[in-house]
From TrEMBL:
Protein's name in the database: Peptide chain release factor 3
Family per record: Belongs to the TRAFAC class translation factor GTPase superfamily. Classic translation factor GTPase family. PrfC subfamily.
Encoding gene, per UniProt annotation: prfC
Natural source organism: Methyloprofundus sedimenti
NCBIfam families: prfC, PRK00741.1, small_GTP
Record localization: Cytoplasm
Gene3D superfamilies: P-loop containing nucleotide triphosphate hydrolases, Peptide chain release factor 3, domain III
Coiled coil regions in record: none
UniProt signal peptide: none
Keyword hit for GTP-binding: yes
Keywords: Cytoplasm, GTP-binding, Nucleotide-binding, Protein biosynthesis
Length: 531
């Protein structure tokens, strides 16, 4: 590769912002996604993104499910531009389709946007997703949504984020009132007031902007609230953290924006800051060495495998995050796990509303590889040098079911089906040491239905589920072989092997887990297992 094309690559890579939105269901992730795409010009009209959620309650019809999953193949990655930056927004399944994919997608991004409902504050799912972001110290920007409604006091909310999520908050914008009194936001660093009007609607229209907090125009337009705002800002400036780019990039501080996604308000401020400050593609640790995003040779890893749109085609799409270099159509790359070179002729790229075959893609981009069963979550592909990325974890499931076969003669087919389906990574299979049970674990409830339907459709096996008294799982290991042996004997009834043959402790309750951890200080209990 010559100097000139190398610098073109470097430029392309620097433009990329690969991110995901984390939030609790109903905080406004879908609405915000849609507005971001509107700003980015990737969709023309509000409503295009919403549609994909219309069928989200259809849990009992396999075709519907396939369709739903198929649709989300296209919306799995959304690329759009803003301020000369190229954004790759990776969808993180929420609601019923919440699954381990949601977690794993977060290992493929360089930063995240956190959406919080002003009335609800920090909710469960957000706490969990934040923990996952922490595994890779992912920088996080925060958007506090629904200011057009009454909610918690902004100061109180920042305190809550700081204490519950253990991250410093740096307000970037500040709301002027809320609910019926919501008048807009003040940008603390640009000293501008952006006025809210109900007519703002879904249009890309920025409404009126006033320069300067002391501007008398402000008093004329918002009356008493102008003076309130001035006092509040003085207080906020004294009591809160100042924006610090390094702290943001280190994941210890989150810049905070206020607005209303549905009214398309406060989003441009967020998006501008995102384009300016969010990290471009970061390097990544491979087993062999650290790989910089700017390296010439292509490399990447698969973080998700998903059914294709067309159910008559059995093929699945493997989502690969490019970690270094550039992908060229037709290039030959190592499929590291199986030790073969493959030629990739028809990878898929993702634009908001369409899929098409691509000629090239850069570090930070996601490409879809057609997969007829040879690609698994965690697989690495590399050009030239053989590299292997690790750190794409399995997460401890939070829901467990015993799989019961309807026709006892189909036992072998069941085992085969379960092994293959769990290899896709949305559910995990556990085999207790003490008996022949097959325990399925998932982080999202819909995955049990999906697995049952697919077992029937693809393996002709009918099964039902029994509840089991398992509350959570932890992978166990120890540096002390003698203690580990002792533990294995004593805890035999609670131990199982996962799909990879690793030992797992299945706890009947949180209390049981806690007591066991306290009793066995030499044993390490991990909530994740790296692939
Ligand atoms: P998701 O589950 O996080 O994707 O949330 P949605 O984007 O589907 O939003 C959940 C609900 O909140 C929907 O009824 C939205 O119309 C509503 N919503 C989203 N943003 C706002 C907002 O800024 N103000 C108000 N009042 N409602 C909003």
């Amino acid at each position: 590769m010559n100097q000139e094309s190398e610098s073109i690559n470097a430029k392309e890579i620097k433009k990329r912002r690969t991110f995901a939105i984390i939030s609790h269901p109903d905080a406004g992730k879908t609405t915000l996604t849609e507005k971001l795409l509107l700003f980015g010009g990737a969709i023309q009209q509000a409503g295009s993104v919403k549609g994909r959620k219309a069928d989200r309650h259809a849990t009992s019809d396999w075709m519907e499910m396939e369709k739903q999953r198929g649709i989300s193949v296209t919306t799995s990655v959304m690329q759009f531009e803003h301020k000369n930056a190229i954004m790759n927004l990776l969808d993180t399944p929420g609601h019923e389709d919440f699954s381990e994919d949601t977690y794993r997608t977060l290992t493929a991004v360089d930063s995240a946007l956190m959406v919080i409902d002003v009335a609800k504050g920090v909710e469960n799912r957000t706490i969990k997703l934040m923990e996952v972001c922490r595994l890779r110290t992912t920088p996080i920007l925060t958007f506090i949504n629904k200011l057009d409604r009454e909610g918690k006091e902004p100061i109180e909310l920042l305190d809550e984020v700081e204490s519950v999520l253990n991250i410093e908050c740096a307000p970037m914008t500040w709301p002027i009132g809320m609910g019926k009194r919501f008048k807009g936001v003040y940008h603390l660093y640009e000293d501008t007031i952006h006025l809210f009007s109900a007519t703002h609607g879904g249009k890309i229209m920025q409404g009126e902007t006033i320069k300067g907090l002391d501007n008398p125009e402000l008093d004329a337009l918002v009356g008493d609230q102008a003076e309130e705002l001035r006092e509040e800002i003085e207080l906020v400036k004294g009591a809160s953290h100042e924006f610090n780019l390094e702290a943001y990039l280190a994941g210890t501080q989150t810049p905070v924006f206020f607005g209303s996604a549905i009214n398309n308000f406060g989003i441009l401020e967020l998006l501008d800051a995102f384009a300016d400050y969010a990290p471009s593609p970061q390097g990544r640790e491979a087993d062999q060495r650290f790989v910089s995003a700017q390296e010439e040779n292509f490399s990447g890893f698969v973080f998700k495998v998903q059914a294709n749109m067309d159910p008559s085609h059995r093929d699945r799409i493997a989502f690969l995050r490019i970690c270094s270099g550039k992908f060229d159509k037709g290039m030959k790359i190592n499929h590291v796990r199986i030790g073969k070179k493959i030629q990739v002729g028809n990878a898929i790229t993702f634009k908001a509303d369409s899929r098409k075959n691509i000629e090239e893609a850069y570090s930070g981009d996601i490409i879809g590889l057609h997969n007829h069963g040879t690609i698994q979550v965690g697989d690495t592909f590399s050009e030239g040098e053989v590299l292997k990325y690790s750190g794409i974890p399995y997460f401890a499931p939070e829901l467990f079911r015993r799989v019961v076969l309807k026709d006892p003669l189909r036992g072998k087919a069941l085992q085969k089906g379960l092994v293959q389906l769990t290899e896709e990574g949305a559910t995990q299979l556990f085999k207790p040491l003490k008996n022949n049970d097959l325990i399925l674990g998932a982080v999202g409830i819909l995955q049990f239905d999906v697995t049952a339907f697919r077992l029937k459709a693809e393996y002709n096996v009918e099964c039902v589920y029994d509840n089991v008294s398992i509350n959570t799982a932890r992978w166990v290991s120890s540096d002390n072989p003698a203690k580990f042996e002792e533990f294995k004997k004593k805890a035999f009834d609670n131990l199982a092997k996962d799909g990879g043959g690793y030992l797992v402790y299945l706890a009947s309750s949180r209390v049981n887990l806690q007591l066991t951890e306290e009793r066995w200080p030499d044993i390490k209990f991990s909530a994740t297992r790296e692939l």
